[in-house]
Specification:
Elements lengths: L2 E3 L6 E3 L3 E2 L12 H13 L4 E3 L8 H10 L7 E6 L13 H15 L6 E5 L9 H12 L6 E4 L3 H7 L5 E7 L11 H8 L2 E5 L22 H4 L17 H15 L5 H10 L6 E2 L6 H8 L9 H19 L4
Parallel strand pairs: 3-4, 4-5, 5-6, 6-7, 7-8, 8-9, 9-10
Antiparallel strand pairs: 1-2
The structure holds NADP nicotinamide-adenine-dinucleotide phosphate.
């Protein structure tokens, strides 16, 4: 798999990573054995970056990663996140003491002395302007409890603010065929600053596989059911903020543009990794077949000029009005 330098971390990672929110919770049940198989399949297929967070299943995703890695000789880069344990969820909670406690808990969950990367997990916007938070993270790098830190942002504006802090090694942002705004300013700015970009929600929570229709339903414990209107967290994290019926119809067009020879999911991931400034994409997967299908994007041909133009038309006609000026 093609490897790229991950911003200021000093690490090189494969262009297709694995998102592991599904292995913690919020996507219906993913049992212990399936989670282990997904992780093994990803690593066996050449994935070298896992994305997790301390709140995915309240630590279950991190713990499952620790267990899966324990018997293996190879060790991927593990990017975790901190900050959404804040209670109440407000900027004042981002104290040195709380950050210390969150980071130490992730070190225990993952069974390591030094975390490869801690990303601030979509904190309140004011946190990006709080130099004390970044000073605290610099202190954790200095004492060896983390090797590097980055941010996971909701909006382009938050990403641009975060880039003003020298120590920020990476930015994670929603980027997919239905979420293009980061291409305008954020990705060029990140590239100029030598900051790596992890593209999340690359399949718009599964919409961009083309496999759902207007009658598809999701279980009660799946955010695609309980967060449809942003009831639990930012609605942009569910179907990339695209209303479900709008997304289904647009995804049908995307599948036609991809054609019969290429799975739509891999086509959508190839689009992401070919955007200048992207380091890696982190699709989530609920089973081994999905992992393998996603890794296949790394060896696919780039999209043609006419396919790219057609995708842009679909965005402009069906999607832009719902998302572009929102995040
Ligand atoms: N705030 C944050 O920092 C934040 C927020 C969101 C996500 N993330 C990270 O980003 C990762 C990726 O985003 P995401 O998981 O939300 O969304 P995503 O990657 O866009 O979509 C994942 C879903 O797509 C479907 N899928 C994946 N591969 C497939 C394949 N080859 N064929 C058919 N269907 C496939 C599955 O849906 P089914 O379940 O229907 O099979 C899967 O659950 C997460 O796992 C997490 O690590 C971070």
């Amino acid at each position: 798999m093609e490897q790229r330098p991950l911003g200021k971390t000093g690490a090189e990672v494969g262009v297709i990573g694995l998102g592991t929110w599904q292995l913690g919770g919020d996507w219906g049940d993913v049992d212990e054995d399936t989670a282990a198989e997904v992780l093994d399949a990803a690593l066996d297929a050449g994935v070298t970056l896992l994305d997790t967070a301390d709140v995915y299943g309240d630590g279950r995703s991190e713990e499952r990663i620790r267990k899966a890695l324990a018997p293996r000789a190879d060790r991927p880069f593990v990017a975790t996140k901190a900050g959404r344990r804040a209670d109440p969820f407000e900027a004042a909670q981002y104290t040195p003491e709380n950050l210390r406690a969150w980071v130490d808990r992730s070190r225990r969950n993952l069974g390591v002395d030094t975390l490869d990367l801690v990303q601030l997990h979509c904190p309140p916007t004011a946190v990006y302007s709080d130099q004390h938070v970044f000073d605290t993270l610099d202190g954790f790098v200095a004492d060896g409890s983390i090797a590097a830190y980055g941010v996971s942002v909701e909006t382009v504006a938050e990403g641009l603010t975060a880039l003003q802090h020298e120590g920020v090694a990476t930015i994670q942002v929603i980027l997919n065929i239905f979420r293009r705004k980061p291409l305008e300013e954020l990705l060029p700015a990140a590239a100029a600053a030598g900051v790596g970009v992890l593209a999340r929600v690359p399949l718009a929570s599964g919409l961009l596989t083309g496999k759902y229709d207007e009658s598809t339903t999701f279980p009660a414990d799946d955010h695609r059911n309980f967060n449809r209107n942003g009831e639990a967290f930012d609605v942009g994290e569910t179907f990339a903020g695209v209303p479900f019926d709008v997304g289904v119809a647009a995804a049908r067009e995307v599948a036609e543009i991809a054609g019969d020879a290429v799975p739509t999911a891999a086509f959508a991931l190839r689009w992401v990794i070919d955007q200048p400034g992207v380091t890696t994409v982190i699709p989530g997967a609920r089973n081994v077949t999905q992992v393998r299908g996603n890794v296949a994007a790394a060896t696919m041909a780039p999209l043609s000029g006419s396919q790219l133009a057609d995708l842009e038309r679909v965005y402009d006609e069906r999607i832009r009005a719902h998302v572009h000026d929102r995040w």
